[in-house]
Amino acid sequence: MTSAGLLVVDPVAHRLSTPLPLIERPGSPDGLVMGLREFWFNYDRFTRSFEVLLKSRYKVAGVARVDGTHPRTGRVLDAWLQFNRSVDWALVGFGGCGGCAPWAVKDAVELEDNGVPTVTLISVDLEGVARRTAESLGHPQLRIVTLPHYIDDMSDEEIGSLAASTFGQIIDALVRPIDG
Amino acid sequence: MADDFLHDASLPTASLTRLRATDDDPVAVWEEALERGWSDGLPVIAPTAQRVKAMLGGRDPQAAAPIPGPDEAALALAKVAANAVMAGCAPQYFPALLAALGAMAGCGMTSAFSNAPCAPLLVFNGPIRRELDINFSHEMLSMTTRANATIGRAVRLIFMNLLGAKSPRLFDVQHGMPGRMSMVFGEFEEESPWDPHSVSEGLPRGRSAVTVFAATGTMPVNYHQIPQRSSELLLILKRCMDYTRANRIGPSPDAGPPIVVLSPKHVRAFSIDGWSKAQLESELTSAVNDHYDIELVAHAEKIELINRGRDPDEPRVIPTKPEGRVRVLVAGGVAGWHSLMIPTLAWGTPMTVSID
Q1: Residue A142 in contact with residue A134, Cβ under 8 Å?
Q2: What global pTM score does this model have?
Q3: pLDDT digits (tens, 9 = 90+) for A118-154
Q4: Quick check: B120 contacting A, CB < 8 Å?
Q5: A6 and B81: CB-CB below 8 Å?
Q6: What separation in angstroms does the CA of B276 have from each of B124, B200, B269, B281?
Q7: Quick check: is A61 in a domain?
């Protein structure tokens, strides 16, 4: 006869908050203004490569760039708020350290809450930290794509190859329906 | 049959769950705890309702724990007790554990144990050392007694299971350190000519207390000599602090003031030569805060970076090197020639609380 298993007090804290809904995803980047929130050494090489690829495959209505440094005050804050209002979707990056990853997620969440769908690029080694931040901000389903940690010292060719190899994944993260 | 002491097992803040393992098979309990992510790698005691109730010692299982959970949500005391059971704590350790958690919450260090290469070091003062058999002599930091090993381990499991401090959700704990498993000792007050640390922090003599530090390692300081000369020992201690001074050269220094744990032999050398604890702490503090005058390219880059988000008309923020007071404790075996330097992290301020 098999004994019943032990009944124990669950030693784990489970999150109680209800996730907030992500903003509806666009069907395609066609005809949209892309926003590039940029922060990390040499990350702009990746975004430039990505921009070239995007324009070669879609009709891009425009590209806006904003710096991802925190905290933001005065005119720098004004520029960030203007960015929020002026783009149709945003590629947010790069979360390459324990401060940068949470800050990238915070910016992405702020954009989502302002009606801008996002894809956030995070170092593969910091995905756990990024997702923990997203959960704490009520967005466990935030769309995150990981990149190798060492993008800051990759060659231009390596960056170009990386942009090409992750392009499909990023577009999928942007357009995939919320329940998909 | 479930123990109904949890009042309402459907409440989200405390719940019961059934294991596949039975108590007859401790290896199966351990393996299932590993599978569920509850364990720190070592065997755990199954947190049955009966054991959790014993650990609570009459406290309300639904009462809020002294440390907030993720997103500042309240944690049920029953869950803290469950982790204490898993760690192997005896019920009489629970007040000491709760006091330590309260100190962590109050001193701004909880984030450090998820995002920095440090361990919560718990230092006990007062009668509780002997009541719980907390080691303050030979092997005190080897975690060879139940209290030293399990009180610290309970903190570890609480951070893992209740505060989410486990890989891959950690940052900047590249290598970890052994003290994160448990790092607990008592002060050897009986061998000290000076006030216990808790008294120096304002608590009455004879009151049981715990202090929490964010420790990043342990470094034996060797002065093997008869006769002992305090001037020579002081020189050696100051030079050992070069680790902290050097670790503050970089653009984002996080090295806090070290703790100096004098052995009974070494504290006698200072005391005989007329040193007070306050004098020694001041001398060592001046030494460690004598920063290296080294300019790196990285410093200018860091200043530019942290000000890039500011309106250009606002004053620039210039980062400063962390400073703080070196604290001197007395502990360790009587026979022996080593004291200890414990480097710390400059996150939060060590806090001493009494144990009720």
Answers
A1: yes
A2: 0.92
A3: 999 999 999 999 998 998 899 999 999 999 999 999 9
A4: no
A5: no
A6: 21, 12, 11, 9
A7: yes
